[in-house]
Amino acid sequence: MTPERRERLREVAFRRQAGLTVILENVHDPHNIGAVIRSCDSVGISEIFVLYTEPHLTEEHILVGKKSSGGARKWVDVHYYTSPEDCFRRVKEKYGRILATHLGEAAVPLHSLRLTQPTALLFGNERDGVSETALAYADGNFAIPQMGMAKSLNISVACAVTLYEALRQRLEAGMYGKDNPLPEKEKLALFEEYLERSDKKNTNRRVERK
Hints:
Blueprint: H1 3-15, E1 20-25, H2 30-43, E2 47-51, H3 60-64, H4 66-69, E3 77-81, H5 84-95, E4 98-101, E5 108-109, E6 119-123, H6 132-135, E7 140-143, H7 155-172, H8 184-200, E8 208-209
Parallel strand pairs: 1-2, 1-6, 2-3, 3-8, 4-6, 4-7, 5-7
């Protein structure tokens, strides 16, 4: 491994955002999942949660999106759940609050959110959005402002727009630098993990099923 590659891995590990993640509920298109993983890696997210409650959806939908993820699947852990209760309990234990993309009466504009706080962002599938079951676990709803005729964005686009608003806020707060709340010990452990993954040259890791 070249010194430049090693330093690149260190930079990525030390910029990871421990207080930010994404939950995907019953997202059908594997290419959308791959695109979301790529966006997550781009803004410094190290893990996401995929919840499938529809029987025809399996972990293979996650793996098929390899090309869409652009290699980011190697660096982003995917936790796969089939139980909403188990999924949301784990997310709340680690991230505290869940905010859902949902066009309800109580929805607030994306740009009014304080995304420097620990947050899990919940996105529903392409057809139905976030289910009522999942909304029951959410601590709030938000909507992305739109000025055209269309009332919704593609799931991967909506996720990218939301994540880059989080990145903007966190950059301004210095959270990708000296004010990153991730403990030094955890940064170093993540760096060592990335060194190991780099050596294995494994670009399509299995999902962790719960």
